[in-house]
Amino acid sequence: MALPQPSGAGAAGAGWLRSIRFSGFTVLMFVVIVMFVIIIAPGLRVYIEQRQQLAALHAAVDARDAENDALTSEIARWSDPAYIKAEARDRLYYVMPGETSFLVVDDVPAPAEPGSDVSDTISTTRVDWLSSLFASGVTAGLSTSTPQELEQNGVLP
Fold first, then answer.
1. Which of 23, 43, 55, 89 is deepest in the core (most CB within 10 A)?
2. Are 11 and 5 in contact (CB under 8 A)?
3. 89, burial (CB in 10 Å: exposed 0-12, middle 13-18, buried 19+)
4. Could you tell me if 82 and 92 are in contact, meaning their C-beta atoms sit under 8 angstroms apart?
5. How far is it, in rounded angstroms, from Cα 80 to Cα 86?
6. Are 6 and 14 spatial neighbours (Cβ–Cβ below 8 Å)?
7. Where are the transmembrane segments (predicted)?
């Protein structure tokens, strides 16, 4: 008596699964590959982390070299007597013998008197501050513009 064969998608899936045969060599190669991944993965992670640290240290050394070059050029400038004289004139207001120094104090124009634009009457504004506050919050929350664009459009002070 023959066994009935199942029909449909389940039969096709079970058929190819039964046809898979593992030899000893296939199992051995699978075990070797898994062991290789288990052994190599932590070392590879450490290697990648060390390369990132090395790149960060190289960047720090380059920054220090640039700072060192800037300081060396600053030392060279301060070694020049003409630069020292120019700095003394600018910073300390020194003058050479025989020269006359003029220092202008308060060269900024005086502001207008504060009482000139103030009115004598009290005026009230008819602004609904609550709806204005709500509209401002909604506009800020739903806007896709950057702060720079809002400043250019006059929305932000």
1. 89
2. yes
3. middle
4. no
5. 10
6. yes
7. 20-44
Number of neighbours of residue 150 by Cβ within 10 angstroms: 15
List, in order, residues 6 or more apart from 88 with CB less than 8 Å away: 94
Q: In this structure, what DSSP letter does residue 6 have?
A: P
pLDDT beyond 60 at 1: no
Q: Residue 41: what residue type?
A: A
pLDDT in tens, 78-135: 999 999 999 998 898 888 899 888 888 877 877 766 656 667 787 777 778 888 888 8
Contacts of 6 (CB under 8 A, 6+ apart): 14
Encoded tokens for 106? 């308060």
Task: Break the chain into its structural domains and give their ranges.
Answer: 23-93
